């Protein structure tokens, strides 16, 4: 266990992230499961010292977990965002000095009410945790839940949103590391290892994916995914997926992924064991812990924290209901540092070689630059071709949104004239009651739909297009830095006019 005194900051930190699946009214046995999650954290032989929770939607569930863990994790914050709340919470053994909720500028659409991403206001729960008296004895924790993919790439209309969200959290982690603090990013990132968003985060911020760092040959997705098929690996067993691939989602050990017939037997009290040797073609890793400190060499200090271990955790079932505690398992990691380390001396220039590509990206490639990584321009970790692909993605999505805005505003204008026409018709057919009633009903429904489309097109989509412009400027500026570092002339490196934004 790490020493908690201010005079002796910790040399080891145990970190845990868990998607609790705590949707109110929708998740089965929600309160019972989340209460048990709190109990399991409290009775753990080696309890975590920093915990990030996702999909903990209600204050009732959060307070239940806090009540049971406050003797181990006396500091905590439930984060409020959006219409219904983002479901994010952070618990800590050490004091939280500051906290904020950073809302993603691009985060779904209000028209997709059945998906809910826009309404919960997804973003990053940020906490600055003081572990000791020195400047470097600070951990900045970033807990998030990225937008879910509802379609396969490249047909996923939310790909641009997830890319922008990965970009934003990478910036937050990079700034924390460059301040000399320990940056910890954790949560349900809704991405597979070495996917577009994953490589964007690890290339654009000085952080490590703890599982990939310890298991560099771990899977790039489920065994039936295109990425794994191209690697030519055999279908892993359920046990192998847990211990080596970190597959905390969609595996046979999780009862919420079982067929409905098996779940019904389980609910009736039948004990159904799981064979760890059975093939597991569906298990995959969506939950991550990223850690890093020191910024980029040569001007920033070398990293002081190293990854000691990582495992899939919280696999136990509810003691009376016999169901898994969530539809995800947790990821737990231990990081450590030399107790005598302070701010290390600057390291030499870092070379970044090309990374493995994930074929699931359907043409989107993240290639690390082989140029020396200058401190002033961390964006040079990526190539100009990568930034060109991001810009093409933004342009394609912006065309879609501009078209949608035009159609929705046109619908609003047309609805005004249709409603006027209906009222004129009522005037001429007032002696035929049922016709007048139908015209009034049509006018009301038509005008209501028109106003709704007008608000979405005029307000939401205009706001979204402005957010896209900001994202586009940042990407173009990052590409300019790459070109300048590669020796391009000033005119060649800067190929955009700020007035277009």
TrEMBL record:
<feature type="domain" description="Endonuclease/exonuclease/phosphatase">
    <location>
        <begin position="16"/>
        <end position="328"/>
    </location>
</feature>
<dbReference type="GO" id="GO:0006665">
    <property type="term" value="P:sphingolipid metabolic process"/>
</dbReference>
<keyword id="KW-0378">Hydrolase</keyword>
<dbReference type="GO" id="GO:0071944">
    <property type="term" value="C:cell periphery"/>
</dbReference>
<dbReference type="GO" id="GO:0046872">
    <property type="term" value="F:metal ion binding"/>
</dbReference>
<comment type="similarity">
    <text>Belongs to the neutral sphingomyelinase family.</text>
</comment>
<dbReference type="Pfam" id="PF03372">
    <property type="entry name" value="Exo_endo_phos"/>
</dbReference>
<feature type="region of interest" description="Disordered">
    <location>
        <begin position="340"/>
        <end position="365"/>
    </location>
</feature>
<keyword id="KW-0812">Transmembrane</keyword>
<keyword id="KW-0460">Magnesium</keyword>
<feature type="transmembrane region" description="Helical">
    <location>
        <begin position="434"/>
        <end position="460"/>
    </location>
</feature>
<protein>
    <recommendedName>
        <fullName>Endonuclease/exonuclease/phosphatase domain-containing protein</fullName>
    </recommendedName>
</protein>
<keyword id="KW-1133">Transmembrane helix</keyword>
<feature type="compositionally biased region" description="Basic and acidic residues">
    <location>
        <begin position="349"/>
        <end position="364"/>
    </location>
</feature>
<dbReference type="GO" id="GO:0016020">
    <property type="term" value="C:membrane"/>
</dbReference>
<dbReference type="InterPro" id="IPR038772">
    <property type="entry name" value="Sph/SMPD2-like"/>
</dbReference>
<keyword id="KW-0443">Lipid metabolism</keyword>
<keyword id="KW-0746">Sphingolipid metabolism</keyword>
<comment type="pathway">
    <text>Sphingolipid metabolism.</text>
</comment>
<feature type="transmembrane region" description="Helical">
    <location>
        <begin position="409"/>
        <end position="428"/>
    </location>
</feature>
<dbReference type="InterPro" id="IPR036691">
    <property type="entry name" value="Endo/exonu/phosph_ase_sf"/>
</dbReference>
<keyword id="KW-0479">Metal-binding</keyword>
<dbReference type="GO" id="GO:0004767">
    <property type="term" value="F:sphingomyelin phosphodiesterase activity"/>
</dbReference>
<dbReference type="GO" id="GO:0052714">
    <property type="term" value="F:mannosyl-inositol phosphorylceramide phospholipase activity"/>
</dbReference>
<keyword id="KW-0472">Membrane</keyword>
<feature type="region of interest" description="Disordered">
    <location>
        <begin position="219"/>
        <end position="246"/>
    </location>
</feature>
<comment type="pathway">
    <text>Lipid metabolism; sphingolipid metabolism.</text>
</comment>
<dbReference type="InterPro" id="IPR005135">
    <property type="entry name" value="Endo/exonuclease/phosphatase"/>
</dbReference>
<dbReference type="GO" id="GO:0000324">
    <property type="term" value="C:fungal-type vacuole"/>
</dbReference>
């Amino acid at each position: 266990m790490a020493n908690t005194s201010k005079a002796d900051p910790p040399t080891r930190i145990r970190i845990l992230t868990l998607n609790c699946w705590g949707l109110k009214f929708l998740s089965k046995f929600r309160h019972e499961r989340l209460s048990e999650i709190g109990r399991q954290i409290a009775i753990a032989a080696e309890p975590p010292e920093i915990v990030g929770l996702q999909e903990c939607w209600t204050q009732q569930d959060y307070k239940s977990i806090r009540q049971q863990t406050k003797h181990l994790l006396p500091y905590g914050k439930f984060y409020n965002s959006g219409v219904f709340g983002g479901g994010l919470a952070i618990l800590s053994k050490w004091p939280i000095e500051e906290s904020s909720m950073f809302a993603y500028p691009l985060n779904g659409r209000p028209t997709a009410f059945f998906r809910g991403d826009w309404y919960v206001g997804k973003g990053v729960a940020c906490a600055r945790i003081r572990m000791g008296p020195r400047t470097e004895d600070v951990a900045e924790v970033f807990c998030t839940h990225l937008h879910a993919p509802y379609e396969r790439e490249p047909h996923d209309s939310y790909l641009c949103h997830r890319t922008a969200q990965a970009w934003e959290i990478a910036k937050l982690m990079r700034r924390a590391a460059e301040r000399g603090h320990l940056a910890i990013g954790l949560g349900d990132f809704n991405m597979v290892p070495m996917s577009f968003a994953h490589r964007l985060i690890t290339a654009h911020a000085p952080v490590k994916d703890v599982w990939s760092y310890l298991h560099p040959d771990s899977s790039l997705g489920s065994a039936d995914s295109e990425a794994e098929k191209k690697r030519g690996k055999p279908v892993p067993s359920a046990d192998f997926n847990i211990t080596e691939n970190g597959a905390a989602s969609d595996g046979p050990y999780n009862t919420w992924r079982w067929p409905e017939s098996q779940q019904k037997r389980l609910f009736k009290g039948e004990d159904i064991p799981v064979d760890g040797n059975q093939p597991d073609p569906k298990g995959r890793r969506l939950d991550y812990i990223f850690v890093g400190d020191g910024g980029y060499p040569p001007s920033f200090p070398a990293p002081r924290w190293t990854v000691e271990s990582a495992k899939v955790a919280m696999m136990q079932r509810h003691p009376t209901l016999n169901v898994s505690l969530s539809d995800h398992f947790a990821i737990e990691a231990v990081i450590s540092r030399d107790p005598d380390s302070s701010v290390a001396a600057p390291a030499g220039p870092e070379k970044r070689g090309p990374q493995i590509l994930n074929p699931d990206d359907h043409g989107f490639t993240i290639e690390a630059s082989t140029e020396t990584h200058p401190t002033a321009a961390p964006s040079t970790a990526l190539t100009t071709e990568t930034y060109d692909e991001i810009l093409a993605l933004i342009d394609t999505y912006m065309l879609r949104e501009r078209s949608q805005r035009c159609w929705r505003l046109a619908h609003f204008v047309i609805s005004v004239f249709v409603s006027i026409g209906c009222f004129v018709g009522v005037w001429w057919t007032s002696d035929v009651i049922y016709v007048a009633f139908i015209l009034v009903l049509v006018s009301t429904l038509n005008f209501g739909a028109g106003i709704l489309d007008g608000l979405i097109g005029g307000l939401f989509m205009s706001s979204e297009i402005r957010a896209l412009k900001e994202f586009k400027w940042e990407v173009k500026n990052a590409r300019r830095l790459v070109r300048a570092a590669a020796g391009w002339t000033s005119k060649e490196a800067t190929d955009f006019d700020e007035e277009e934004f």
